[in-house]
Amino acid sequence: MDIRIGIQNSPREIGFESDQTAKDVEKAVADALANASGYLRLVDAKGSVYVVPTASLAYVEIGSDQSRRVGFVA
Asked: Record's InterPro entries (predicted)?
């Protein structure tokens, strides 16, 4: 699943693929936002860890669990 994280006062966003489900990512974001001085911690498909302070979060976009189709659709 694709995840994109927008950071306040930054023209770029963090984008990566994760093996976590949409519900797991949504719960991690909700838990991080519940603690105002906390951090959002997510792991990508390759094992890299992303830690973003919740005070800097602008948005978190969670992609779909479905894989992309390849080829032509009739």
From this structure: DUF3107
